[in-house]
Design a protein that fits this description.
single chain; alpha+beta; five-stranded mixed beta sheet; 5 strands; 36% helix; 23% strand
Length: 155
């Protein structure tokens, strides 16, 4: 049915590990299917990650299997947990001027990040279901003009 194919999509372009952790916790607690497309970049390098949950624990996923339509794709927090250890400084505690000086971003990296995020969202919406998540993660380097795709494995 159409209702079974409807699910929220969070598009995140936050420059804060603390914000990413909050979104990740909300995704892990949702009892429903949801997708979070997270884009982030530094001066020249960055990534776009598609996180998908089905409101199902990993144990249930193992038990039920993919043939019943259950899926899970890890988040940036799952992929790089070492970045989220310890006390994360709140974005509101850092002035805009300090943030701009400490986290220089090249316009090419910003444009590439936005383009990759758009393509992930477009691919998802074009199919209307989890089959449209063909790439779980795209890593890029604007200086080297390099894009590396991580194909999706649903487990």
């Amino acid at each position: 049915s159409t209702a079974d194919r409807l699910f929220p999509i969070i598009v995140g372009c936050v420059d804060s590990l603390q914000c990413r952790k909050i979104i990740d916790e909300a995704m892990k607690q949702t009892p429903h299917k949801a997708v979070w497309i997270d884009a982030g970049n530094g001066e020249f390098i960055g990534q776009v990650i598609v996180n998908a949950v089905n409101g199902t624990s990993l144990e249930e996923l193992d038990r039920k299997g993919l043939e019943e339509g259950y899926f899970n794709l890890p988040s940036f927090v799952d992929i790089a947990p070492h970045l989220f250890q310890g006390n994360l400084q709140k974005t509101s505690e850092i002035s805009c001027a300090d943030h701009a000086v400490e986290n220089v971003q090249n316009i090419g990296a910003n444009i590439l990040s936005g383009a990759m995020l758009f393509l992930a969202l477009n691919n998802l919406l074009a199919t209307g279901n989890n089959v449209g998540i063909d790439s779980h993660m795209v890593k890029f380097d604007a200086k080297l003009m390099q894009v590396i795709n991580e194909p999706t494995t649903l487990n």
